[in-house]
Design a protein that fits this description.
The complex is a heterodimer. Chain A is 57% helix and 12% strand. Chain A is an alpha+beta fold. In chain A, strand 1 and strand 2 form a beta hairpin. In chain A, 30% of the residues are buried. By secondary structure, chain B is of the alpha+beta class. Chain B has 2 domains: 98 residues, no CATH class; 78 residues. Chain B is 51% helix and 20% strand. Chain B has 5 helices and 6 strands. A 3-stranded antiparallel beta sheet of chain B has the order 1-3-2. A 3-stranded antiparallel beta sheet of chain B has the order 4-6-5. The chains are: A alpha+beta, B alpha+beta.
Chain lengths: 107, 185
């Protein structure tokens, strides 16, 4: 992972994390938005412009890749680099969570 | 065909938030935006008053692909384009959260839009000013080119004042927006 990717994506915004997380299965922007809304009980709502911009940037940076097109909607999926970033974020969030519960989790 | 009304309003490239509010206010009066004619004419169609949220986007040039499709999926109705701006709207009644009532729910996205406006609109404006308006003003002042005619002096004088006002107003406002978003990010 090069320095630029690390600087931009570690740590990630909640929006960025969920988008990348959802792309472990190929999806289009609106599908991601529905899934995120469901996962967070509607509390994380992603605007259409934000979704479009984030997908474009992640594609340009190689975190996700164009999968196929369905009814003029572009479907994306996560790449190996994207998975690396996601793994790192998951570890960071787990540490944050455990330590915040007072577990003194030395991970 | 429904009756059309033309209204005159001036919004600079830095006043898009005000423009959104203005369009929403017109919709509440039953005037629904149809299209815009450069530089400052807005065509409306008369109808029933409704609370409609308007949003202006200033997407990148490489926006294409499924941009319109995605925004339509999210419930936005496209109601025109003008000079790089894309006009979107949706009924306020069907929005439940920020993700539905705003195009951008992240500061990075808002910041990209402001930067894009500065890059594609402010910088060319500066170029025209320094390459055309200002040199012509100096020439007119010298009076070499145009002899005794005061017309060009007036013309380029007014242009210079107009440009200076635009730079100060738009430049300052966009800069403030940018700073605020960068601080939050």
């Amino acid at each position: 992972m090069d320095a630029k990717i690390e600087r931009v994506y570690v740590p990630m915004t909640e929006t960025g994390f969920y988008i990348l997380y959802c792309l472990q299965t190929p999806q289009h922007g609106y599908g991601i938005s529905r899934q995120v809304s469901w996962l967070t009980n509607g509390e994380v709502a992603i605007g259409a412009g934000t979704m479009y911009g984030t997908l474009s940037k992640m594609e340009k940076d190689g975190l996700i890749v164009f999968d196929r097109e369905e009814e003029k909607r572009r479907l994306y999926r996560i790449t190996a680099l994207g998975e690396e970033v996601l793994d790192r974020e998951m570890r960071r969030i787990e540490r944050l969570y455990r330590n915040s519960r007072g577990e003194n989790w030395n991970g | 065909m429904a009756e059309q009304v033309t209204k005159l309003a001036v919004f600079t490239i830095a006043d898009f938030k005000e423009e959104e509010v203005w369009l929403r206010e017109r919709a509440r009066e039953g005037l629904h935006f149809v299209r815009m004619i450069i530089p400052c004419f807005y065509i409306f169609e008369k109808g029933a008053p409704e609370d409609v949220i308007y949003r202006l986007d200033f997407p990148n040039n490489d926006e294409d692909r499924d941009y319109a499709r995605m925004l339509t999926d999210f419930g936005w109705e496209n109601c025109g384009r003008c000079m790089g701006w894309v006009y979107w709207r949706r009924s306020a009644a069907e929005t439940e959260n920020e993700g539905e009532s705003e195009l951008f729910t992240d500061d990075a996205g808002r910041l990209d839009m402001v930067k894009n406006i500065v890059r594609t609109r402010m910088l060319p404006l500066l170029l025209i000013f320094f390459a055309c308006v200002l040199p012509n003003l100096f020439r007119a002042i010298d009076g070499e080119m145009y002899g005794a005619s005061g017309f060009f002096l007036w013309f380029f004088g007014i242009m210079t004042v107009l440009y200076l006002y635009l730079f100060l107003h738009c430049g300052g406002k966009l800069r403030r927006m940018q700073r605020e978003l960068e601080r939050k990010e």
